Protein 1
Amino acid sequence: MVALSVPATVLAHDFEVNGILYDINGNEATVTHSANNEYQYSGEVIIPSSVTYEGTTYPVTAIGNHAFMGATELTRVSIPNSVSAIGIHAFSSCNNLTDVNIPDAVTVISAATFYYCTSLTNVHIPDNVTEIGNNAFNECSSITSINIPATLTTVGRYAFYGCRNLTRVDITDLDAWFNIPFGDEQSNPLLYAGHLFLNGIEITDVVFPSYITSVPDHIFEGGEALTSVTLHDDITSIGKWAFYGCSNLSNITIPNAVTTIGRYAFANCKQFTSITIPNGVTTIEDYLFYQCERLTNVDIPNTVTSIGLNAFGNCYGLTSLTIPSGVTSIGHYAFTLCSHLTSLTCLATTPPAVSSSTFLYSNINQATLYVPAASVSAYQNADYWKNFGNIQAIVSPEPGDVNGDGDFNVSDATLLINYLLEDDLSPNAFANADMNDDGVANISDIIILINRLLNSN
């Protein structure tokens, strides 16, 4: 039943049949809207597959831009299989619309098609859809599940913003999922749903295929059911928001080939306890480990030169951390609310640039800061660094004590050799291993170390 109010104005459509407005496009008809959207649909609308006007029958092939926009009394729409295109804002702000079918011939869900359809509960995306536009399902807050077809190649910005009652996302092809370029953090429905199902089986363990060398942006954001992720050795980058909110993922091994990790990549991974950032990474991006509440051990490589905004914010479990010598800047709120931090070692000879918020609410007035002996005075007089309760010189261990156990023996040589093979040495171990003080740990240091061992015996 269609209820349609008809004002006495000039209309911006070609004809009306049974309360539905149409435009003629060649030999086809498009469902359209009135001038100034003055017609208001209500109840259930059933769109026919063809319509006759002045003796000519036209197939109905499209729903035009803004066709039903703002029809707040519209509850259900039945769209025929003859329709292959649905325009932008077609059902925007139809906030009592509960059910609509998208025909199989549709390949694009246009921008803001279902924007603010807050009562919409039942939607199925056809297998032929290749694109979901910006804001397509923005604030569809009653949808509880959504399917993502294997044909999808583009998801626009804010496509699923505010779909806060989503509980599952269904896919049929994991490889296809890996290749979806999500437009932003609000375009992946998994952010809200938390649970991804492959052919009806929930995904909890992910092994990245060999052809993926860059972990895509947003790929598993919000994936709270994930417990295991395996990244192969040829991966060179991890995209922004990639594993945001994977709250049951307890650890991940970042391959040594990785040189860039995007912002928010591991934020809200609340089960993380330890992370090793590989050599080659130069920047710890904004919010990278934000709210990793149980994180207690972080190994930052010597290649890092900057630590971003809120990078370790709300990491309550951190009690100690070593900042490498090459770091020159640490962003706002980088260590805010690291309330259990009792010891911070900064190897930089010049105090890195910080702000009043860098260590906000981290009780640094009760913490000890360890710095190079020649730099104690500089830190004691540097803004915000001087707020540490105790600033002490780093006590240098015996040269060659690579593992820092207070003894100098063959295990130190073994550790250094393994470093050269695997390029994996903590900043403290690196400082102890640089026997000739040339700023690198290499074969020359091994020779010096072995000669010292031989001479000591």
Protein 2
Amino acid sequence: MMDSLKGRMRLIRLWLDQQRSCPAWHQLITKSSGWRLLHLEREIDGGKDTINNLTMLHRIVIGSRVPSESQ
């Protein structure tokens, strides 16, 4: 996605729509912290590859336990 101008603009839009933060950890996503894109509904299950079906998470969130809201 970073290879094209359209892909970069899509990443920036998603990042800004999320207020520059990870929705799981509520911490800022920066170039140094890194990120991963996750489809909310998997493409194999019929999800689209659109901005509305994507979320940007910290790299460490994928495959780890997300903190609960009560903590």
Protein 3
Amino acid sequence: MPSRAAARFARACWVAAWAVLATVGGALSAGGVEIGGTVRTTDGRPAAGVKVWILSVRADDEGNTNPWCAPDCGKHTVTDQRGMFSLDGLESGARFEVLVEAKGFHPGTTVINPNSNQPLGEVVLVKQTDPPAAATHRVLGRVLRPDGTPAADALVSVHSSQPPSAVEQFVVTGPDGRFVLVSDRHMWRVDVTVRALGAAGGQIYSLKPGGEENTLQLTAGATVRGRVLSRIRPAPGVKVVARSTHRVMAARKTIEVVFLAHEQLTDAEGCFKFENVAADSELCICTQMQSLAEKNLAAIPQEVRVPANGGELETGDFNLHPAHCVRGRLLTSDGGPLPRGTRASIERRNLSADWQEVGVDDAGNFEFWGVPSETMVLSFHSPGTHLIQGYCLSMKNRSVDHVQQVVLCGRVDEDLDLRVLLRPGTGYSYTRGSLPRFENRNPKRHGVDEALLENQPMLGLPPELAALWEAEPF
């Protein structure tokens, strides 16, 4: 089913407007993972000859990725006469956001989890209505690649519109790079972003409605290279992730556009290369915790300034060194059992695209390896939700976020063995990467200077309280 993180990408709007219904499934083939499904129209007829391609690849249903950075992104096929499709040889252990687009129908998307036991399902496409006659209800555009040729199959996403209206949230360009956005009311401006293979993202284009066509010229961006070493030797097979932050002008304001999860595996020489990175942006690069957890290694992250379009940048080497283990036990103040299937997640404070998630056993124990020496965010949730059913974090945990009370936040500079107390109640829902910046809060208003949390060790219950609760909850 569509995930909450996908809703951040406005799928909630797409589903509500277009009634995209989907359940999906997958299987393991000899060359990797196979995914598939069926596409039909609202009258029940199979949609034959419809193009289906992989829009993005994510590590789980909360991953938020740049659509074109993973090797499987852009792979596509067409449905057969029965409206069925399949794609095989894909990366295992990932979820795939699939886009279905047919002429005369609203595009449909769904997230396919090959690891689920759900049967193959279907995507229902809703027919487009006739476009309104008023020119101010339509935006005409054409996307050009960096070399000036038409950008077919580019994804045009609506960032905002003035006034706010029920404009389609995204559209795919045709073979000539052209597209049309339609609204149910008068508009005087629509801001969009464009994502296409071989081009950089990060720019917001302000488009004018009417009969005149808007031209959107894409740029190639820059290339960033680096190398990962272990004991001075190349470290192959290490996943390197990055966050690109780009400041752009939109509606006469400077806003920050963040693209998470550029990612690459190091080659036999330990080298990685990010292509089509937004020019003149800030790039935070690190080795991924999960890929190094088994070896309990980590590297110091690097923040670099990306050069202008067409430029290249060589980062310094990422030298792997011993990392830390963060283990602990969840305790309940009322002595009740933990909800079955409770999960623990740890992420970098400054790069939530890098995270680990593990299961919590029946005794409340959890354990992470490969945790780097920096500020981390530790959270817990029940399966399929963003909070623990029936419980929330107690304020007796010394590193708890005092305002939302959803996470522990603090530095990890050594192996940790935490005792974390839960109390009955309903806490705030926490989505990875959504913890507000502490420096933007007023310490006098909230009664605590929470910015200090980021520079202090991560702590759970005080040892004397932990001993009491482990002996006899009260």
